[in-house]
């Protein structure tokens, strides 16, 4: 089934969305240009023809700087801030420890930000600081991964949708039997742990002949993820596949496999990856297919949600509605969650169509 994405001033694309046995998958349009960001600072003014925003400034705090996934979400957030007329900055740690984001939350409080848009490495470790911000009237928007103390959560896709997409790809490749491993990122990350748990439950319930030998953690760090991929391939003799639900882990598992011909054709790697980082591995045949969404759209949507909270248009209760610029209208669901859209499958036919 082919979906035509609306051509617009942005580099529009026409892509055939892979139709899996259980779902038709569609990715919201993708912007051109390479992901910017990763640096803090930067201000913006309302562009002509856009309605003034709630006003003030918003700080985005990613899991870590230097991760191209968050550079892409940062690009989308900056684009939205410019459209709305919010002053925008990105602040964050280079490490991915549970408390590494705390100093940046404190900075946001002390500089009087109107909103904090955060992807927390740990859903609870930052709550004392986020609640301090909220008591001072600062709106807190979780994006990419949830935290226990926020007004809304901007989720890239449903947990079951992500888990089922990855499990179905792997089961289809394996002929529904074999030994696999899961290589995740941060061990405390709410999003990653939700996907791992959902995959394990689906495999146990629907794929009894696929066994998960081990779950390892690359901590969203390149070198650690590479070493963990090496450890899995070297320590599990009948390993047939690795599922890596983290852009750093899937890139580094493919990197190790590319460096080690003895495991090529024996261990199949898939996961959640950036097309810009995975294209070389798809083109060389190391990786056949992987999933994701548009992280630029995720940052863009989160910033429009922040503005809607700042302006008082929404409070985060179920049923609240807001318009997110080029992405259109969104409704807040149960537990304050807003879902961007479903998972998209990348492969040789489309991996070159995207720049994030
Ligand atoms: C990494 C991070 C991020 C996750 C993606 C898929 O970049 O862990 O939180 O959403 O992978």
Walk me through what this model shows.
The chain is of the alpha/beta class and 356 residues long. It folds into two domains: 7-156 and 294-341, Rossmann fold, CATH 3.40.50; 159-292, Rossmann fold (3-Layer(aba) Sandwich). It is 34% helix and 21% strand. It is built from nine helices and 18 strands. The strands form six sheets. Strands 6-5-7-8-9-17 form a six-stranded parallel sheet, sandwiched between helices. A four-stranded parallel sheet has the order 11-10-12-13, sandwiched between helices. Helix 1 crosses helix 9. The longest helix has 17 residues, at 68-84. The radius of gyration is 20 Å and the shape is elongated. It starts with a strand and ends in a 9-residue tail after the last strand. The model is unreliable at 1-52 (pLDDT under 50). The protein binds alpha-L-rhamnopyranose. Alpha-L-rhamnopyranose is lined by residues 63, 67, 69, 119, 144-145, 185, 189, 191-192, 220, 246-248, 272.
Secondary structure: elements and pairs:
Elements: E1 2-4, E2 14-16, E3 19-20, E4 23-24, E5 57-61, H1 68-84, E6 87-90, H2 102-110, E7 115-118, H3 127-135, E8 139-143, E9 152-155, H4 159-174, E10 178-184, H5 190-206, E11 210-217, H6 222-235, E12 239-244, H7 247-259, E13 268-271, H8 275-283, E14 289-292, H9 295-310, E15 321-323, E16 329-331, E17 337-339, E18 344-347
Parallel strand pairs: 5-6, 5-7, 7-8, 8-9, 9-17, 10-11, 10-12, 12-13
Antiparallel strand pairs: 1-2, 3-4, 14-18, 15-16
Helix pairs in contact: 1-9, 2-3, 4-5, 6-7
The protein binds alpha-L-rhamnopyranose (RAM).
């Amino acid at each position: 089934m082919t979906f035509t994405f609306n051509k617009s001033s942005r580099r529009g694309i026409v892509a055939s969305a892979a139709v899996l046995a259980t779902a038709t998958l569609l990715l919201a349009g993708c912007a051109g240009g390479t992901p910017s960001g990763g640096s803090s600072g930067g201000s913006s003014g309302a562009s002509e023809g856009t309605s003034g925003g709630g006003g003030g400034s918003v700080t985005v705090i990613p899991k870590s700087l230097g991760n191209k996934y968050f550079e892409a979400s940062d690009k989308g957030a900056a684009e939205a801030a410019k459209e709305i007329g919010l002053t925008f900055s990105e602040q964050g740690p280079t490490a991915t420890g549970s408390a590494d984001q705390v100093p940046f939350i404190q900075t946001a409080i002390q500089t009087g930000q109107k909103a904090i848009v955060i992807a927390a490495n740990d859903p609870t470790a930052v709550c004392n600081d986020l609640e301090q911000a909220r008591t001072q009237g600062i709106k807190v928007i979780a994006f990419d991964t949830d935290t226990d103390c926020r007004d809304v959560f901007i989720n890239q896709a449903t947990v079951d949708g992500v888990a089922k997409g990855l499990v179905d790809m792997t089961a289809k490749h394996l002929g529904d039997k074999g030994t696999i491993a899961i290589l995740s990122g941060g061990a405390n990350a709410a999003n990653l742990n939700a996907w791992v748990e959902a995959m394990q439950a689906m495999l146990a319930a629907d794929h009894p002949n696929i066994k998960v030998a081990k779950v390892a953690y690359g901590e969203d760090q390149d070198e650690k993820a590479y070493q963990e991929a090496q450890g899995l391939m070297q320590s599990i003799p009948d390993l047939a596949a690795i599922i890596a639900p983290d852009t750093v882990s899937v890139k580094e598992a493919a990197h190790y496999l590319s460096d080690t011909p003895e495991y090529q054709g024996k261990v199949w790697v898939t996961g959640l990856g950036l097309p810009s980082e995975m294209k070389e591995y798809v083109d060389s045949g190391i990786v056949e297919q992987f999933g994701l969404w548009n992280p630029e759209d995720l940052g863009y949507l989160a910033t429009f949600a922040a503005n809607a909270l700042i302006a008082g248009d929404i409070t985060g209760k179920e049923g609240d509605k807001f318009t997110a610029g080029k992405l259109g209208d969104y409704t807040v669901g149960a537990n304050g969650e807003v879902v961007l859209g479903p998972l998209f499958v990348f492969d040789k036919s489309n991996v070159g169509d995207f720049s994030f």
